[in-house]
Amino acid sequence: MHIFIMRHGEAGFHAFNDKDRPLTARGEDQAEQQGLWLNEQTVPDLILVSPYLRAQQTYQLARQPFKQSIPVETWDNLTPYGNAALVADYLDTLNENIQSVLIVSHLPLVDDIVTELGVHHPISFYPATIVHLEKQQDTYRLVEVKFPTA
């Protein structure tokens, strides 16, 4: 199984609360660009996304290149301080028909998920960064880190 863990694009700070922070124009460009790259790698069988506005906007823009409909689960555990162990456990329950998953979330959770999956490489999760992991047997390995150029 291939896991693509993406931090949301660059977000502004002008919102009533953290969950309502929208993407900036640059963040929108980053999400679109990363979606084009992701479409060249795979079309996810499942998308897991934080309910926060900037993550929702990121996934909407990143999924535009995909031609087919993809199941999306908005999950409260994917907010910035969600539980990485729950995410890892959920990934372990997915059936063999799921070959590729995109997770769109926030710092520090995206970094915590990578660590929880047993990948111990220093990764700088700049806005819209995607980390591609591959699961083989019960082990995850780092395939690639894709930074946006926008």
Automatic annotation (TrEMBL):
InterPro entries per UniProt: His_Pase_superF_clade-1 (IPR013078), His_PPase_superfam (IPR029033), Mito_Ser/Thr_phosphatase (IPR051021), SixA (IPR004449)
Coiled coil: none
Keyword entries, A-Z: Hydrolase
GO molecular function: protein histidine phosphatase activity
Gene Ontology CC terms, in alphabetical order: cytoplasm
One Pfam family named in its UniProt record: His_Phos_1
Protein name in the entry: Phosphohistidine phosphatase
Source species of the chain: Gallibacterium salpingitidis
